[in-house]
Every structure is written in C-alpha cells, then in structure tokens.
Amino acid sequence: MPGSVWGQEFRITTFGESHGGGIGVVVEGITPGLEIDPAMIQHELDRRRPGQSAVSTTRREPDTAEILSGVFEGRATGTPLLLLIRNRDQRPQAYDEVKNLFRPGHADFAYQQKYGLRDYRGGGRSSGRETAARVAAGAIAKMLLARHHIAITAYVKRAAGISCENIDFSAIEKNAVRAADLDAAAKMQARIVALKSAGNSAGGIVECVIRGVPAGLGEPVFDKLDADLAKAMLSLGAVKGIEFGEGFAAVDLTGRENNDEIDVSGFLSNHAGGITGGISTGQEIVFRLAVKPTASISQPQRTIDGDGRAVECRTIGRHDPFIGARLVPVVEAMSAIVLVDHLKRQEALRENTVN
C-alpha cells in the first residue's frame, strides 16, 4: 500500500491490520554489527501494549515481537530486518453490527471513498494497532541513538482538561496516564474513568523533549527536521496538531521576546524549540501534540450506512477512553526513527564533503 514506507537512509515499512493475522515492520538501513537487544524491543512494546489499565482498552495482546531476518548471533547484518507481531486477541465478529456503517470520527468513510472497499474489522489499516510495528522499529532506532547519547522523553502534559503543574520526568512511568505530575495524573485518571463510564472519551496534549541532538541535523528546504518530525507525528491517527517551542503562543510575542539570543556561552533561551531554519541548533528539541478524543464511544451518534440511509451508531467494544497514555511510546519511537534517518543523512554529507 502506498504510504506505508518512511525514511531514506533509515527506512521502515509497516504492514498488517488490526484484526488480521498480525502486524509487522521491515527495517532497512541498520548499521551492520549493531547489537540487537530483543528485551529492549519487548520493553517498548509493553509500554504501548493494550490492556494496561483502566484508561486503556481491555484487549489482551502479548505483543511479542519475532525477529525473522536481519540478525545473526545477536547483531544486525545490515540486511532488511523483519519484525512480526502476531494478533492473539482479535475479535472481528465484534464489528458485525457496524460493518455497513460509517462510524463518526473514524476513517471508515474516507477509506471507502478512496478504495471502494474497506476492512471494517477495527478499521483495518487505519487502526491504532498499526503503531505497535512503529514502536518495534523505534526500539531499534533508540539503540542507534544511544551510541550518540540522544535521549527522548514524551509524556502526557494535559488530559481531559487537566494539566500537569509540576513537571517531573521520574513520575511518567509511575501512573497509568503517563503524566509528568502524579497529583495531576490522579485527577486525569478519575476524569477519564468517569467519561468512560458515561460512554465517552477524552483528548489531551503529549509533549516530547529530545536531549543530546547535535547541531546541524535537517535538510533545507523540503526535508527540514521539524517538517519531518511534524509529518511523522501527524501520520499518527490520533494527532491533529503540533507545535515546536513557543508554538502558537509566539503569535502574541514580539520579535525581541521570541528570538533566542546568543552569547559566548551559547543560546540564552529556547523559544524555537531547538530547531531554526529546519536544522537542529544543539539545544533541546521540544514539541507538543494535540491528541483528539478517542473516536470509539458507546453513546449514540448519527451517521449513514453504505446505502446512504440515516442511522444511529453506537460503537460497543474494547477501546481506549484516552489514547494519550499509550501514544507516548509511539511518539518516542517515531521521533527516534526520524532522528536516525537524519543522523545517517548528515554522516553521508560529511563523508562526501571536500576539505
């Protein structure tokens, strides 16, 4: 399917559907000899895995990754690496009642218009389940980034109208919402659970902070680092907006207030979010994502069926009332994939530079 490939020097191709036999990814461009740690891949998949808490779907998937090629005696061979994640708890029959309906907020109508048919089993290719393949590939990208001492941290900054007040990265993996504030996390979870009980869902904001990125990554004019990060994030179905640094708040600042001045010690501020002219400055890269409320809700909604008749739709099943918590490892994975691709492109540029 066109649109299932990402990257140039470090490339991933994902495949599979939500309720098919499995999902997976082919990863190309891995540095030969890189030690591949299956435990790290599994750790990242476990962070995204369904059925974790009261604020996630009850679908039970072990999400065990099988490496079928590209690794010999624990190291990458440099040839394509294929990771397969088999679906163990798929229930396509759960969608029989809505298979001829266009669920509001879902990609059902758009896919039908594009292809003339669609996989109604949980949305098929448009399902968020596809992101497990990205997380597996992102774990490999993180292994490569570790060589460059680059660290990526994403967390839920806001959920169900409640924001983190005191940012503490050590709190992120200590609460079900993956917020960076334990007090705020408790309030978020209570609000999300209440919405779930009412057959509704919540949206929020995920922030990502990337440390250790060297200055100089990014390609003018169309392959800017922030442009590629933005495309990677907006390729996630739940993400509807992105901002870097001050983002939309910059519209109320003056140029003097928004510019990042420099002295002999370096930058004096980071309003740009670590990227100017589409190229990294060496500062922390900071961006935030607007995450929409989960489209699958059990409250009745108006829609049409495949014959164009007005009907009522209720999406009954196993769905996340708030997708932000499980989106956190996906955001980190896609960030890692983009950064590795640009690191390799920069290395190729330097190797070809005439001194």
Architecture blueprint of SSEs:
Blueprint: E1 5-6, E2 11-16, E3 22-28, H1 38-48, E4 65-69, E5 71-72, E6 75-76, E7 81-86, H2 108-115, H3 131-146, E8 151-159, E9 162-163, H4 182-197, E10 204-211, H5 225-234, E11 239-244, H6 255-258, E12 262-263, E13 266-267, E14 275-276, E15 279-280, E16 285-291, E17 301-304, E18 310-313, H7 324-351
Antiparallel strand pairs: 1-2, 2-3, 3-7, 4-7, 5-6, 8-9, 8-10, 10-16, 11-16, 12-13, 14-15, 17-18
Helix pairs in contact: 1-3, 1-7, 3-7, 5-7
Distinctive features:
single chain, 355 residues, alpha+beta, Chorismate synthase, AroC fold, five-stranded antiparallel β-sheet, 18 strands, 26% helix, 22% strand
CATH H-level homologous superfamily name: Chorismate synthase AroC
Span of the ends, CA to CA: 43 Å
Q: Main β-sheet: number of strands, strand sense, barrel status?
A: 5 strands, antiparallel
Total count of helical runs of at least 4 residues: 7
Q: Structural class of the secondary elements?
A: alpha+beta
Q: Percent of residues in beta strands? A: 15-25%
Instruction: Give the helix level as a range of percent.
Output: 25-40%
Write the CATH fold name: Chorismate synthase, AroC fold
Question: What is the molecular shape?
Answer: globular
Number of strands: 18
Strand order of the largest sheet: 1-2-3-7-4
| Cα-atom radius of gyration | 21 Å
Can you identify the CATH class?
Answer: Alpha Beta
Integer count of domains = 1
The CATH architecture classification is 4-Layer Sandwich
Sequence of secondary-structure elements: EEEHEEEEHHEEHEHEHEEEEEEEH
Oligomer: single chain
Average pLDDT taken over every residue: 93
